[in-house]
Every structure is written in structure tokens, then in C-alpha cells.
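quick one: flavin-adenine dinucleotide bound model?
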Amino acid sequence: MKILVVGAVAGGATALARLRRMDEDAEIIVFERGNYISYANCGLPYYIGEAIKNRDSLFVSDKDTIEAKYGVEIRLNSNVSAINRDKKTVTVENILEDTTYEESYDKILLSTGSSPFVSNPAWLDQNRVFKLWTIPDTDAIYDFIRRNSPKSAVIVGGGFIGLEMAENLVDRGIDVSLCDMADQVMPPMDKDMAKIVEIRLAEKGVNLYLGNGLKDIQNDGAVVTLANGTTLETELAILSIGVKPNSQIAEAAGLELNERRGIKVDKYMRTSDENIYAVGDVIGVTDYILGNETMIPLAGPANKQGRNVAENILDIGKKTYDGTLGTSVAKIFDMTVASTGASEKSLNRAGKVYGKDYLYTIVHPMSHAGYYPGATPMTIKLIFATDGKVLGAQIAGYKGVDKRIDTISTLLHFHGTVTDLTNLELAYAPPYSSAKDPVNFAGYTAENILAGLVSPITLDELEA
Ligand code: FAD
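yep, here:
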């Protein structure tokens, strides 16, 4: 069987290894339009901030190593510009040699990822304006800072990458302003939880302009104008507004897309063409809690889908991917912020109503036993259905946030209830937790609410 893999970073690189492990004979050719394969894009902000000192450590592997280890052929600087389904070929542009050729296939895996959304691409032509997505983007920002030692920066977009960049630029001694058209940072979180992050950002000196999106960038990037007319003078601007799926070749080939232009796949990751599969940021996924189709561009799901799809492509098994919880975590200076499953925002978007369909509890337990030095508080918002099923959680704190979100994420995977949360037996010794772990606590208070033992009021009710 001849398999073409398009895109060779998270999903594509995982898939090629699994394809080879499951079939020693298949011919596997990997096309990557960039010059790098299998690199750590999640580490890029930390290289710019110099938390990661060595650029080479961003590369998980390289072409020669992967080719030798897996017996696959990797063609870098090779852009797949068309899928010719009638002929079962793809058209490939060799970017370095400026030539074009066709390559035949039995099966294709698309793992083409996503790209930053920039409403006016001409902004990026200005010398001080950057996006952060790839190794060349990273090199450009890193070199700009090295050559110009900017004192100020404006980041447009308060999602994960924008916030990670804020921290890393502050660490480089740069005065950072961050704007977002939304009235909060961290879109997956609810406003009440995002507020905790915003307070910490302000305490760390980040100037926030929320509910105030980007209108224009002028003077070679030196003047950023916001929607309400505020102008920010800056020496560096980074656009981190959002992402769009790289689905152009799929669309041109007539594959079915969803309303956000993500490629539609079934639970076997097969597109509307039985010989073409797709994984990663470019596909629509099922929301694991709500069941609707959505887009969740994260590395974990891309890797899992890349592993699952191999057996389906080879037709030696039927591995399903059942949906994405959107479990995510971010370091915001000394704070850790994480979420999993449904938020109030996503529930409300799906027409679910507080009190009728879902409830929540907010608790502030310590990261470990209060009597052992170094314990810090965390805030857990646990959202649950009125029948007790846990729907999602958001946590902000300083220590032990990651393991609590992963515990709740695991519970969500197995469709657990608040009572399951109270009964989870979790590792305890004073330096690590308490005999009642923070997630047990969240379960206890949720049980109390469901039993009518306490009747909390929400922030909205309090304000009213
Ligand atoms: P990618 O890994 O993006 O790979 C797609 C590849 O396809 C690209 O290299 C592209 O050049 C290539 N390609 C596209 N079209 C073509 C074509 N026509 N022909 C040939 N090649 C093509 N996720 C997290 O979960 N946690 C994090 O902390 C996190 N941090 C991030 C930080 C940054 C700066 C960035 C950019 C992303 C981060 N992500 C993070 C997101 C995560 O990296 C992506 O969700 C993941 O890489 C998606 O995998 P993928 O295989 O779908 O696409």
C-alpha cells in the first residue's frame, strides 16, 4: 500500500511512526512544506523568553533520523497543492527547486494543521509586526529582539499563545500591553475564572485592553490602534488572534467541510472520501461532553488521532476517536490555569441553563496540607449536571493545578459523577495533598448542593 502523509509535525509525525510499526511493507511518503519535521511548536514562546536556551532542543527529531528509524521517505519544502481524486494523485510543489510533480497514492493522511488568523495580512508586511506559529516565525521574533532590544510590545489576542508570549516578553524585560476584542482573556474559561488570570497579569505589569480589539496597525508597526480609538505606541507587535484550519486543498478537492471550514471526518478519522483520512487541527471533532461538532486545536488530540488512524488507514483494525474534552493548561507567570470539558460558556451556547440543566461549585482548597510549608490556594470551578454527572472544570492556582485538572479530565473521560469525585482515592502525604484532595472537596460541595444542604448564589445573583 502506498500512503502519503501531508504535514509532518504533531499528528503527521505520530501517524507515520505508527503506520510503520503496524506495517513493515507499506510505502510511506511524507510531505512537509516547511523545512522542519516533528518540532515542539508548543515550546516556541519559551525559546523566545529564553526559558529554553538551546534552539536545537525544539527539534524532537529530524528528517535523517526518522527516515533511518522508520523506513519512510520525507520530502521537506514540499507543498501539496492539490489532491486529484479522479487520478488518485497529489500535486506537489518543490519549493526550493520551484518545480511541480504528481505523486500517486492508495491512501492519504492529511495532518495539515492550522494557521494564525490575521484579518489583514498586509499588517505582517510591516517590520515590527509578527505572528508566532512556526520555527521561521520564532527565529524572526528572536532575532528582532536581539537586534533591536525593544522596550515595549503589543500582543493582540488573549488566548494561550498570546498570554504565554506576554509572560516570555516580560521575562525579557519588555513592557507588554495585551488587547483582545473579547471582554476576557483565555477563551475556553468562564469570565469569573479568567478574572483571576487578568488580576495576576496586571500584578505582573501587563497592561490589559479587553473588549477592545485591533483596528489597525500603522507606522511600520509602531502604532497600534484599538477598536475604541485608543492608540498604543510600541516597538514590537505580535498578532495572536486565533487560528483557521489549513483545509484549502481538502476544500478544493471537494471533501466535506464543517461551517468553520474544518474537514469533516467520521470516528475512524475518514473524510468524505474513503481513501483520504485527516487528523489534528484541520478537522472538526466531537465535543466529548456536549456531543456537537467543534474545532479544538490542541497537540494532545492531534497526537492521539495520529496514532489511532494508522490501523484504519492500513485496514487492519477499526480504532475510533470518540471526541475531545479540550483539556488544556497554561503557565501564566507563577500561576497555572487549566480547564477540561464544558464551561458555562459552552453550556450556555448549547442552550443549557444554570439551575435547570447544570450547577457549579467554586472552592478554594490548598495545594497540599496547610501545615506543611509552601501550600498555596487554588480556585476550582466544578460544573455538573443536575443529575450529578460532572461536565467540566476550570482551575487557577500556583501548585498542583495540573494534576487536579488531569484527575477531573480522567473522570470526565469515564463519564463520572460528583459522587465518583468524592470517592476517588488519590495519593496523599502532606507535601503533596491533603487527606481530602482538592478534587474530593469539589465533589463534596457539589454533593451538598445537589442534596439541598447548601444553596449557593452566583456572582450574577449577588450583583443583582
Ligand atoms: P501541525 O503540528 O501544525 O502540523 C501541520 C504541518 O502541516 C505544518 O508543519 C505545515 O507546514 C504542514 N502543512 C500544511 N499544509 C501543507 C501542505 N499543503 N503541504 C505540505 N505540508 C503542509 N497545543 C497544546 O496542546 N498545548 C500547548 O501548549 C500548545 N502550545 C502551542 C504554542 C504555539 C506557539 C503553537 C503554534 C501551537 C501550540 N499548540 C499547543 C497547538 C499544537 O501545536 C497544535 O494543536 C498541533 O501541533 C496540531 O497538530 P497538527 O498535526 O494538526 O498540525
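The mean pLDDT is 96.
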